[in-house]
User: Fold this.
Amino acid sequence: AQLVESGGGLVQPGGSLRLSCVVSGFTLSSAAMSWVRQAPGKGLEWVSHISTGGDSITYADSVKGRFTISRDNAKNTVYLQMNSLKPEDTAVFYCNARRRAWGKDYEYWGQGTQVAVSS
Assistant:
């Protein structure tokens, strides 16, 4: 299984970015997906989660109202639309997948994409 994130970059405060996470090696529709970030010098912070069917979505308080998670199972891709970005959003963003198959739980991580918010 492989998760590949893209869409990061340098943006000014108040700007927007859309992150993508393309999965391969398993069917996206079988996995619950999350975005997790790590700011410089800090630990991992969970950002958002979307259930297998997309009917349950949750956000960290720090991004609620600014970020939107979505999934396109046909494209095997999960997105994170980030608006009104703040300097404190600067971090490496990771895509995470959790699925259950053949009676076992599996968890996968992408390599991360860097987001920098600065003027």
